[in-house]
User: What shape does this take?
Amino acid sequence: MADELSNLHPVVGAQRPRTRVGRGQGSGLGKTAGRGTKGQQARAGSGKRLGFEGGQVPLLRRLPKRGFTNIFAKDYTEVNVAQLSAFPAGSEVDAKILKDSGVISRIGRDGVKILGNGELAVALTVRAARFTTGAKSKIEAAGGTAAENAA
Assistant: This one.
């Protein structure tokens, strides 16, 4: 018989049945079900949480605390005016278009902020969460408009 996908099957002995523990002494894994006698691992729900060190103060709690996280910090992805020159004149540019074209790799949680570094020679309609004063004036000087999104 030819080897065809419809005729393939595992070799005899390649698949063993699942071991059912705790099903009587005759099974070989009855009574304690392979867990040994007493102790933490023998108990039900014996899993230890990540970083548990048997009652010793865990490493994460022994290390000193460092730094500070400002929970009110804004997360903007910054784009310079010079990077906007890649777009054709008259086009409308927003965060999604910047990401799709590869100018930015991610859109910040609070959106995109346009910075004033570089020069802009083409007139664009730019929509972003924030603009610096210099960026807004350069976009308008090139004949474009800078519109802030309501974030």
Summary: Residues 96 and 107 are 8 Å apart (CA to CA). The beta strands are 77-80, 92-93, 112-115, 125-128, 130-131, 145-148. The radius of gyration is 32 Å. The chain has three helices and six strands.
